[in-house]
Specification:
Rossmann fold; 3-stranded parallel beta sheet; alpha/beta; 141 residues
Length: 141
């Protein structure tokens, strides 16, 4: 079992007791751009989402949210630059799949919340009923 799988499983163990989680319909991982995924060989958010799904028995929708452009690495940017960097970088492949749904949005690390915020905006504008962001860590800058 990889570190990502262990962390996702642990996340699921922590959330399974939360009554709020059972009200959600699906889990959506923050997508990587295809070029970045090829470079890395995996999407860490998707690994976390899959393990979380197995623990809390809520399906993962892997192909609904997509990254439309390869953004700069967020780690070297200011909070303001991070917001601009991800603005307009996400789109939905099938908006009807999330209309009226309560969604758990999974990312690996949250620093300023720019990525989660932009993904949530896209999901919300397409009719998602409720969105909860979940990460394995919060980084302070």
């Amino acid at each position: 079992m990889t570190l990502g799988q262990r962390l996702g499983k642990r996340l699921g163990e922590k959330l399974i007791d939360d009554k709020l989680v059972s009200r959600f319909d699906c889990i959506i991982p923050v997508p990587l751009h295809p070029a970045r995924k090829r470079e890395r060989g995996f999407n860490q958010s998707q690994i976390l989402a899959q393990e979380l799904s197995e623990a809390i028995h809520i399906p993962v929708l892997k192909k609904v949210l997509k990254r439309t452009r390869n953004t700069k690495d967020q780690t070297k940017l200011t909070p303001e630059e991070r917001i601009q960097n991800v603005k307009g970088a996400f789109a939905l492949k099938g908006p009807e799949a999330i209309e009226g749904k309560r969604i758990i949005l999974v990312d690996d690390v949250m620093t300023t919340g720019a990525t989660l915020g932009e993904c949530a905006r896209v999901l919300s504008e397409a009719g998602a009923k409720q969105i909860m962001g979940v990460t394995i860590a919060v980084a302070l800058i």
